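Quick one: examine the sequence and fold tokens given here and explain what the tokens say about the fold. Here goes:
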Amino acid sequence: MIRAGIELRLKAGWHTYWRYPGDAGVPPRFDFAGSQNVKSVDVLWPAPQPIREQGLVAIGYTSDVIWPLVIVPQDRAKPVTLRLKLDYAVCEKLCAPAEAKAELKLAGGPASREGALANAEARVPKKLALGEGTPLAVKSVRKEDAGAARPRVIADVAAAPGFAVALFAEGPTPEWSLPVPAPIDGAPAGLQRFAFDLDGAPPGAQYRGTPITLTAVSGNNAIEVVTHLD
């Protein structure tokens, strides 16, 4: 395994998007075709933040971001040549599509910017089960059918006292576009409650039994929990 990273530097007032952009936006697309001696590349996603724009809630980054990479070579005894084509969007008041290309030869050993890469890796949400984690944990998730125009999901999240929580919901494939969970009242003591409508499934998809990924971010803590709507 070889570690590397892709850094995007943003001007003040600009932002770019997470793997799921929320109500609006375009997620980055990483293409490593043409790389040499590469079996696989796993892109890791540092914790994002909600970005409010024109009444919508996007999900992304408002400052420089490094996406850590985990690279598995075909032959560990030979160097790796990583070739990247990146399609993404950057936005201020208007959004502009952008494209970048890069090539990097990797022979293993310490990263040239070890500190920055380690910091980015530390920002990647930890994968936990429902109820696990401290101080940050997704304690419970349930589907609620009564009293709303359409069914909705209620999630209770624990966090360190005094720290706000941002919660994001993703379906099992990029074709899903679930609403961004919004904070609501009614949480038990010590918890923060969120709700989102069951909306945004692709045609023919079923909500029941579908794996939903919830990412919670609070201060310097971030976790990722996969649960099912059954």
About this structure: The domain at 127-228 is CATH 2.60.40 (Immunoglobulin-like). The longest strand covers residues 80-91. The chain has a mean pLDDT of 93. DSSP finds one helix and 17 strands in the chain.
